[in-house]
């Protein structure tokens, strides 16, 4: 695709890997409003660990006029780009309503640079219709150009799985779409040039938007089901993991496990679909029920830990607890919307002194986002309870016995990775 120059707006877990892959073939500008982030990327370091420093530095050093990557906080650096790809976050507020501010701000920034013939592609997860109902009017108003006459739009939902080194960007089939058939072809061809796994061209932008939001909603609901099973089996004094292992011997049983559902996608995206459904006059009962179940798991887990402590004769309000892990998933530094914090805060509300250790999380970021001070080491004392929140590799072979005060210490394994004989409770 000759004369292609790409701008990536938002350099997080989604934007950076995309910018690096496009930068190998096309002149690519990575734009972000965070100066510190841009500075570190320009030096060849990615704190999210989605792109290795060696790989990033290789692409930067090999940059030429025909291909390469640069990073900037200045919108003017994107002035001569003809493809603008938006990869900003789409969070929810405290009431679980979609927050569109990052999308709107990104659209305003692009609108000031739009030229005739340019194509804007959104990757951020949205509800069906949002791209054309909310973003396009901003592009038109700011640019003074007309949609599908002067400029065009595409939607290609991100499918990044943070921390996953097997299912990386180029190895995951990409859904694409465009505002006209011709633009849909162009968008599809652009992604085909870097996505080894191939592409699927959706018939419309709305279909592509809907496909993305139901991917995560489906997973959320399935996890909610096994979380409810965990609660039921706790009442029946049955080992949930043993039940799932037995049921999993059937060829078509889906292998979902109970747990804490956080992160920037699964714990958020269903609310976007629910919002749009409610605006259309339909109350999505299953989706919201699943969300309520999963959002309440942190408090429920904490209550189970406290019950076990009481059964062992401990005074809960004077106890010391070690929580291992604060990121939203294993072997990944991402702390966005982590539900491990729910367990930690609930235990603190019971009057416990809670130490939290996580070798993957950035201490300053955790302090800023959650007001929580991470400890430097978990071996400085013995504890009344030990809780595995996140199954980082470093924790799987941990000598749990060395951290126990005595026989009445409670060991709770949320991720069910420790030997059953070592724990007092698990999901």
Shape: globular
N-to-C span? 51 Å
Biggest sheet, spatial arrangement of strands = 3-2-1-4-5-6
- List the helices and strands in order: EHEHHEEHEHEEHEHHHHHEHEHEHEE
> Percent range for helical residues?
25-40%
Radius of gyration: 23 Å
| Largest sheet composition | 6 strands, parallel
Mean pLDDT comes to 95
Report what the structure shows.
This protein is of the alpha/beta class and 427 residues long. It has 14 helices and 13 strands. The chain has helices spanning 15-23, 35-42, 53-61, 101-111, 130-143, 181-192, 205-235, 240-247, 269-279, 285-295, 297-311, 340-349, 363-370, 393-396, and strands at 6-9, 27-31, 68-72, 83-86, 119-122, 152-155, 174-176, 199-201, 320-324, 353-357, 385-388, 410-413, 425-426. It has a 6-stranded parallel beta sheet with strand order 3-2-1-4-5-6, sandwiched between helices. The protein has a 5-stranded parallel beta sheet with strand order 10-9-11-12-13, with helices on one face. Helix 7 packs across helix 9 (269-279), helix 7 (205-235) crosses helix 10 (285-295) and helix 11 (297-311) packs across helix 12 (340-349). It is globular.
List the helices and strands and how they pair.
Layout: E1 6-9, H1 15-23, E2 27-31, H2 35-42, H3 53-61, E3 68-72, E4 83-86, H4 101-111, E5 119-122, H5 130-143, E6 152-155, E7 174-176, H6 181-192, E8 199-201, H7 205-235, H8 240-247, H9 269-279, H10 285-295, H11 297-311, E9 320-324, H12 340-349, E10 353-357, H13 363-370, E11 385-388, H14 393-396, E12 410-413, E13 425-426
Parallel strand pairs: 1-2, 1-4, 2-3, 4-5, 5-6, 7-8, 9-10, 9-11, 11-12, 12-13
Helix pairs in contact: 4-5, 7-9, 7-10, 11-12
């Amino acid at each position: 695709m000759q004369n292609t120059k790409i701008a990536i707006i938002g350099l997080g877990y989604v934007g950076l890997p995309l910018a690096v892959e496009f930068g190998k073939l096309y002149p690519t500008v990575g734009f972000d409003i965070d100066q510190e982030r841009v500075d570190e990327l320009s030096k060849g370091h990615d704190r999210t660990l989605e792109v290795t420093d060696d790989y990033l530095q290789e692409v930067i050093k090999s940059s030429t006029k025909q291909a390469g990557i640069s990073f900037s906080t200045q919108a003017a650096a994107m002035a001569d780009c003809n493809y603008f790809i938006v990869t900003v976050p789409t969070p929810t507020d405290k009431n679980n309503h979609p927050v569109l501010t990052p999308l709107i701000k990104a659209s305003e920034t692009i609108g000031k640079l739009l030229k005739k013939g340019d194509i804007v592609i959104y990757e951020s997860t949205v509800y069906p219709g949002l791209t054309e109902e909310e973003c396009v009017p901003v592009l038109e108003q700011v640019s003074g150009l007309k949609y599908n006459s002067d400029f065009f739009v595409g939607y290609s939902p991100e499918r990044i799985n943070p921390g996953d080194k097997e299912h990386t960007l180029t190895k995951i089939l990409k859904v694409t779409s465009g505002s006209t058939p011709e633009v849909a072809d162009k968008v599809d061809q652009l992604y085909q040039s870097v996505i080894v796994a191939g592409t699927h061209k959706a018939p419309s932008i709305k279909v592509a938007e809907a496909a993305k939001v139901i991917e995560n909603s489906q997973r959320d609901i399935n996890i909610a089901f096994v979380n409810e099973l965990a609660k039921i089996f706790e009442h029946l004094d049955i080992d949930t993991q043993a039940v799932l292992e037995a049921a999993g011997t059937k060829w078509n049983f889906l292998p979902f496990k109970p747990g804490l559902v956080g992160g920037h996608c699964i714990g958020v995206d269903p609310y976007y679909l629910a919002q749009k459904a409610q605006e259309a006059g339909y109350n999505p009962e299953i989706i919201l029920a699943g969300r309520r179940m999963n959002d309440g798991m942190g408090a429920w887990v904490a209550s189970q830990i406290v019950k076990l402590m009481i059964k062992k004769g401990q005074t809960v309000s004077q106890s010391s607890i070690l929580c291992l892990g604060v990121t939203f998933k294993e072997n990944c530094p991402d702390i966005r919307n982590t539900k491990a914090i729910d367990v930690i805060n609930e235990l603190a509300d019971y009057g416990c002194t809670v130490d939290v250790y996580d070798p993957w999380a950035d201490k300053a970021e955790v302090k800023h986002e959650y007001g929580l001070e991470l400890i430097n080491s978990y071996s400085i004392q013995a504890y009344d309870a030990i809780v595995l929140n996140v199954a980082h590799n470093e924790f799987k072979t941990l000598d749990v016995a060395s951290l126990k005060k005595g026989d009445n210490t409670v060991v709770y394994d949320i991720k069910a990775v420790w030997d059953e004989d070592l724990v007092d409770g698990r999901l």
